[in-house]
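Data availability (excerpt). The following record was deposited with the supplementary files.
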Amino acid sequence: MSSTIVGIDVGGTFTDIAVLQSGRLTVHKLPSTPADPSQGITRGVAEIGVDIPAADFVHGSTVATNALLEGKGGRTALVTTLGFEDVLEIGRQNRADLYDLAMERPPPLAPWELRFGLPERVDYTGDILEDLTPESVQAVAALLADAEVDGIAVSFLFSFLNPAHEEALAARLAELPGAPFISISSKILPEFREYERTSTVVVNSYVGPVMSRYLTQLEALLGRDLRIMQSSGGSITARLAAEQPVRTILSGPAGGVVGAFYTGVQAGYPDIITLDMGGTSTDVSLCPGRIKETTSANLGGYPVSVPMIEIHTVGAGGGSIARVDSGGALVVGPQSAGAEPGPACYGRGESITVTDANLTLGRLRPDGFLGGRMALDRERAETLLHDVAAGVGASVTDTALGIIRVVNSNMERAIRAISLERGYDPREFTLVPFGGAGPMHACELAAELSIPRVLVPSHPGILSALGVAIADVVKDYSRTVMLKGADLDKTRLDEEFHGMERLARTELLDEGLPAAAMDARRFLDVRYVGQSFELTVDCPSLTGRSDLTRSIASEFYAAHLQRFGYADRNLPIEVVNLRLKLELPVAKPQQEPAESAGSDASPAVIGTTQVVFAAGATETTLYDRSILQPGNQIAGPALLLQLDTTIVIPPGWAGAVDPYGNLLLEPNPDAG
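Predicted structure:
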């Protein structure tokens, strides 16, 4: 790997670039180009002066995410076992919102006229009961050729135990004119649960044509190979990302969690709650000394079961639009003004957003945005805010405060969902805010949730790009085994894991990755016998294990107690899936802690201004964060200005710069 790594994160409003070179970090931020994200990337790389041939590029992409959520993927067909063509519509027959009588499910990504059933059958042991015939394969190939589809997903029953039929059909479909994007479930997700497996492979084929074109174009523009951030927090080659784009659905947010956890550990706070507030949404994640993963996610109403960091997303960003609903209530989001046209204060948009409210309250400086490179129109924001204020019968200032309270409430519910609702007490964690807007709202959120401290990274607005740059290269593999009782022995587990490792290392060599240098980690999906869903735990060492079942059970009981508040140690367990994670560590910047320069922060003071907080307009000190030194202490109310964000320290909060340049904020006991 090169000594220069460029991390790129494309968000809904801004494109962030972090360059790591010989331990030094250089950052850059510029508006995104939603119509063609690659244009913003190449312009940003040119502006920051990267020596492209000498650098490694890692990209956190929202292309697959946007294609799925905006319904802009390819025309997609599904081929499955005869009689099971409607699995996408039948689903689990559970309601996402139990009391919403008008709830509408999202339409299947493969419509009914593009779902085909073939006569074939594999049983639950992997034995073939009914062979796939050449005649049926030829018939469906002809139908698909006439349908002129962009993508094809193949998902046969029990193909995770015997993929022969899927592989044979894929080989024939690869000969179709137009070269449609083809995915088979035994390759994308070789696990049981027919609905989730089928949904995942259909999502892959739906976003595949869009992602493949984008990556090809971007690599051509840069003239370099890329690595792409996965939802699981590790990077993969662009070639694999083009084949399995479903693994990049939460690519950008995952980079943020990786960067926040790295920052928290370095500062001595490994138990963190991350708050990534960007232009269109807020992503929160809880890290209890580690980055938590899940394989049960739902994006836009579509189940996706590949490994991904456990992230909860709400439509609450700086560009979230404020409006008055039919009942006269103030509503914020989930609609966003994005980068085009953007908030009203950008000069083009007509909608009032959270950014406009912060500007009206004085929490944003019209001449200090993006380090002064972008001017904000406060007068225009206040003029348009009058319409919203009239709708709720309040003053402009009170309406702006209301917008902030509403968006904070949305984010507070998201944090409760990943902490209190999962058995974790937020009072035992540190809040790490980042994204362009996170540090503006963090202290107020922490106060509402009794989170004792806020750790603001040195470059919060580009932390996702930093996380993308330092993410390890990771490949995930899984296999359904269903082992319990006498079948659960170390010989069987060892054989299964060794088989997965051999397959993994062969694939890694094909991708040009140093398989021998990658660390292998083993995990188990475990549940009570008869239970519907499972929990993932570490696989205990299999060396000399005579009490293997007891060791696995002990891990599972502890996880079950944490997640659900109880664990019955008398009930038998079963291992459902094996999971293998291969990691190639990437060198992280090793910043040496700096000596304290003293508590006096006055050299960084650049003036004062009036800022409106809950108690009213308050004289507030302005600081240039780039001048602050380790040890400098700051008491609120204060605004800290920097290129990538503005940090709001309300009255009653105070903090100091730590040895790594982070700002550690806590409630100020000396405040009146």
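Summary of structural features: Residues 172 and 451 are 57 Å apart (CA to CA).
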